[in-house]
Design goal:
By secondary structure, the protein is an alpha+beta fold. It is elongated.
Length: 295
C-alpha cells in the first residue's frame, strides 16, 4: 500500500531576492567601472568584473527559480528542482573562468609595473561597494535559509565573496597610496582570484553531488528513523529501504514501513498517513512516499 503526499499548490512562490540582488549588483558595476576607469586600479576593475558576473548570475538564477517552481508535468514527474542545481553548477563554472581571467590580468600588471592613480576616489568607491555588498549578501542568506534553495545559496556565496573582493581591493589602494608600492594592486588581485577559485570549487563539488542524487545528510536520516520509532506503541515495528535525495530545495523520501500484521487495513492506512505527515512536518519542503509491509 503506497500513499500519495498531501496536495500542494500548483506552483511554489518564487523569492524576489534575486531581483534585489540584480539591482544592487547593477549599481555596483556602474560604480566600480567608473572608479576603475578613473584610477586605473586592476583590483577595482576586478571587483567591477565580479559584480558584472553577479548581475548575470542573479538574473539567470531568478529565471531558473521560476522554472524550478513549475509543478510536475509529463516529462518531469518529480518537478523541476534540478534546474536550480544546474544553475548553481553553472555559477561555479563562471566563477572559475572569471578567476582565471583575473590571474592573467594580474600577472600582466606585475610585469608592467603600472600603479593605480587617484587612490582616494577608489577608496570611496570601494567603501560604498562594501556596504551594498554586505546588504545584498545578508538578504540572500536569509532567503536561502528560508527556502533551502541551492540557487539562492550559490548567490549568497557569490555576494559574500564580494565582501572579500571589495575589501582586498580597498586594502590594495590603501597600501599603494601609503607606500607607493605598485605590486600591491596586482598581488591583491591574485589573492582575490584564489578566493574565487576556492568558492567556485566548493560550489561545483556540492552541486555535482546533488545532481548525482546524493542522499540527505546523516542527521536528517537519523531524524526520520527517530520519527518512525516514535510510532512503535501504535503498531509500527520498524522501517527498511529508506531512500532519499534532493531536487533543488525539495526533499524526496521513500521508505517501507513495517506494521504489525494484526493491524486492520484501515488502521494501517491511518498509521501510514500519520507517519508520513510527521516526517513532512519535521522536514519542511519534503515529499514522502510510504509503502506498508505487514510483519
Amino acid at each position: 500500500m503506497t500513499l500519495p503526499p498531501a496536495p500542494r499548490p500548483a506552483r511554489h512562490a518564487v523569492s524576489p531576492a534575486p531581483l534585489a540582488a540584480v539591482a544592487g549588483a547593477g549599481f555596483l558595476v556602474l560604480l566600480k567601472a567608473a572608479g576603475a576607469r578613473a584610477t586605473g586600479s586592476l583590483a577595482l576593475g576586478a571587483a567591477a568584473l565580479d559584480s558584472l558576473l553577479d548581475v548575470f548570475i542573479s538574473a539567470t538564477g531568478y529565471l531558473v527559480l521560476r522554472r524550478s517552481a513549475a509543478p510536475p508535468d509529463a516529462d518531469h514527474a518529480y518537478g523541476h528542482g534540478k534546474f536550480e542545481n544546474l544553475a548553481a553548477l553553472g555559477q561555479g563554472v563562471l566563477l572559475t573562468l572569471g578567476a582565471g581571467g583575473l590571474v592573467v590580468a594580474a600577472v600582466g600588471r606585475l610585469r608592467s609595473g603600472v600603479a593605480p592613480e587617484q587612490s582616494a576616489l577608489g577608496v570611496a568607491v570601494l567603501a560604498v561597494s562594501l556596504a551594498v555588498s554586505f546588504w545584498i549578501a545578508r538578504h540572500l542568506r536569509r532567503a536561502a535559509a528560508t527556502t533551502e534553495s541551492p540557487a539562492l545559496h550559490a548567490d549568497s556565496i557569490h555576494y559574500g565573496t564580494d565582501l572579500w573582493v571589495n575589501g582586498a581591493a580597498l586594502a590594495a589602494l590603501l597600501i599603494e597610496a601609503a607606500t607607493g608600492w605598485a605590486p600591491a594592486d596586482p598581488l591583491v588581485a591574485l589573492a582575490v582570484a584564489g578566493l574565487l577559485l576556492r568558492s567556485a570549487a566548493g560550489l561545483v563539488l556540492e552541486e555535482v553531488g546533488e545532481l548525482s542524487d546524493r542522499g540527505l545528510p546523516e542527521g536528517e536520516l537519523r531524524r526520520i528513523r527517530e520519527i518512525v520509532a516514535a510510532f512503535r506503541p501504535q503498531g509500527v515495528v520498524g522501517l527498511h529501504d529508506l531512500r532519499t535525495r534532493r531536487s533543488g530545495g525539495q526533499r524526496f523520501i521513500e521508505l517501507h514501513l513495517e506494521i504489525d500484521r494484526d493491524t486492520t487495513f484501515v488502521d494501517a492506512h491511518d498509521l501510514m498517513v500519520r507517519v508520513l505527515r510527521a516526517i513532512e512536518s519535521e522536514l519542511p519542503r519534503s515529499k514522502v512516499f510510504v509503502h506498508g509491509d505487514p510483519v
